[in-house]
Specification:
single chain
C-alpha cells in the first residue's frame, strides 16, 4: 500500500491508470448489479452485489490515480468505504445465515413474511440491505457520497453518474428482499431467533451502521489520518 501511494505522489501513475480503474469500476458495478437483479438465491444475490460494491471501491482508486491533489480525499474515501462495508456485509451475512438455517432455504421467495416469524433478524437484515443500497441515515449512504464526491473532485464526473445509476439499480433487488420479508405471507408459522453470539455480532454491526451514518466524522477523520502519513 505504501509503495502504491508513494508512486502516486511521485506522479508515476498517469491518467491512463485512472482511466483503467474507472473502466473496471463501471464494468464491475454494471455487471454485478445486472446479474444480481435476476438471482433468486439470496446468497448468490449478495455475492454478485459484492462485485458491484468492489466497483464502487474502484471509483476511489480511479480518483486517487486521476491527479495528485486528490490523493488524500481519494485514498481516504477508499479506507472509509472499506470500513463501512465491513460492518454492512458482516451484518447481512450473519442475518442471512441465521434465517436460511432456520427456514431451510436460500430462496428469496422463502424469505416471505420472515418479519413476522423473526422480527429482530428481519430488522437487522433490512438495515444492512438499506445501507448497501446507500440510503440515509446508514453508513452506506455516507460511504457512497464520499466515494462519488472524490470522483467529482478528481473530474471523473461520468463515473460518479454511473455509480449513482448503479445504486438505483441495486435498490430494486435489495429492497425487493425487504418488501418480501415485511409484506409477504409467511411460508411457515414457526418463530425463531438467532443464537446469542450471532445475535450479538449482528447487533454490533447494525448499531455501527447507524452510528457511522448519523455521526461519520470520527471514522472520516481516522481515514484521513491513516492516509495522510503517505503524503
Amino acid at each position: 500500500m505504501r509503495i502504491f501511494v508513494v508512486a502516486l505522489g511521485d506522479g508515476l501513475i498517469s491518467s491512463d491508470w485512472s482511466n483503467m480503474f474507472a473502466a473496471i469500476a463501471a464494468i464491475s458495478m454494471t455487471i454485478g448489479n445486472v446479474t444480481a437483479l435476476v438471482q433468486t438465491d439470496i446468497k448468490r444475490m449478495l455475492g454478485y452485489s459484492s462485485i458491484a460494491q468492489a466497483g464502487t471501491f474502484l471509483i476511489g482508486l480511479a480518483a486517487v490515480a486521476a491527479e495528485d491533489p486528490q490523493l488524500l480525499q481519494g485514498t481516504s474515501s477508499v479506507v472509509f468505504f472499506l470500513g463501512t462495508y465491513a460492518f454492512t456485509n458482516l451484518g447481512a451475512f450473519i442475518a442471512i445465515i441465521a434465517i436460511s438455517n432456520k427456514i431451510g432455504s436460500d430462496e428469496i421467495s422463502d424469505y416471505s413474511g420472515v418479519a413476522r416469524r423473526s422480527p429482530w433478524l428481519a430488522a437487522g437484515l433490512a438495515a444492512c440491505l438499506i445501507s448497501l443500497t446507500g440510503i440515509p441515515p446508514t453508513a452506506g449512504f455516507i460511504a457512497k457520497v464520499y466515494v462519488f464526491n472524490s470522483a467529482v473532485q478528481a473530474d471523473i464526473i461520468w463515473l460518479a453518474v454511473v455509480g449513482v445509476l448503479n445504486s438505483v439499480i441495486s435498490a430494486y433487488y435489495y429492497l425487493r428482499v425487504v418488501l418480501n420479508m415485511y409484506t409477504g405471507e409467511p411460508v411457515g408459522e414457526e418463530t425463531f431467533q438467532p443464537s446469542l453470539y450471532l445475535g450479538l455480532a449482528m447487533a454490533v454491526a447494525v448499531v455501527g451502521l447507524f452510528v457511522i451514518g448519523i455521526y461519520p466524522n470520527p471514522l472520516i477523520q481516522a481515514s484521513e489520518s491513516a492516509v495522510s502519513v503517505f503524503n
